[in-house]
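I have been asked to look over a protein record a colleague put together. Thanks in advance; the entry in question is below.
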Amino acid sequence: MPLTEQQPLGSPFSAVSTAQDVLADIDLSGATALVTGGYSGLGLETARSLAAAGVRVIVPARRPSEARAALADVDGCEVIPMDLADLGSVRTAAAQISGSLDRIDLLMALAGVMATPEKRVGPGWEGQLAVNHFGHFALVGELYPLLAAAGGARVVVNSSAGHTLTDIRWHDPHFRTGYDKWLAYGQAKTANALFAVQLDTLGRNDGVRAFALHPGKIITGLQREMSRQEQIDRGWIDEHGTVIGADFKTPTQGAATGLWAATSALLADRGGLYLEDCEVARISDPGAPMDDGGVRAYAVDSGPAARLWELSVAATGATPITRGTSGR
């Protein structure tokens, strides 16, 4: 994707738009969506909104009983067990999905972890990179034939303004020389953005388009690994847990950009873009503060995107997706 395409399109929506605003008058009856993280926070808002628009929603869940309870009042949602940190679990879930569906129209990769204590996954991978990126990478690889079969599928990946913290640490992606929870989060969010760039490059001839996005600042379960005091010190909440941070969104506002990415006609025949506030984000200056918005050029660069893709194939053993061959 040329960086010149990374500029606003004139969306009718904004930072304060809600999921309901974005999907108003849109009938998605007959479509099928898979929503990771679809039983809490932004994922739950997304699953509810899609189901209300007539979508059959599949929600892979590390805690299936909790997911079923959260979605008990939502018609058209199905929960299947899956743990993004366990590639065997991912492949088992993908096989179950592939056995019951003939296509996937929308794949919303919304699950994630943030600023966690150091944790090693699988063969010693850094935990945030493993869950946020490798797990979704393997899942999309397994389900790619269903995306290609849709003839116009969209894949939407939650990145974050946290990507501004660091590019991919090619010299030490698994923090073997010393762990920093925020740099690990930033790297994982950069990986999410680069994943969308390369997936779009490989998938567009099959009608599979991909987008990454910053949903905005929202207090959800994503902060569960942070203490209340740390959130207070950052000015996000007060001592009672009330959100006081400037420009924080509600969950339904936070879900809006992902749903815009999944459905907007303005994005037809486009992809590999990074979005925010229901709009295509501009390229930000390297030293600009995180809260100024935009996307760093390194997070939408096709060269590093291809490099990360090859690293991810080698790490996960995923079946390579090749351009224009329906994934196999």
Q: What stands out?
A: The longest helix spans residues 127-149. The chain has a mean pLDDT of 92. Residues 138 and 316 are 7 Å apart (CA to CA).
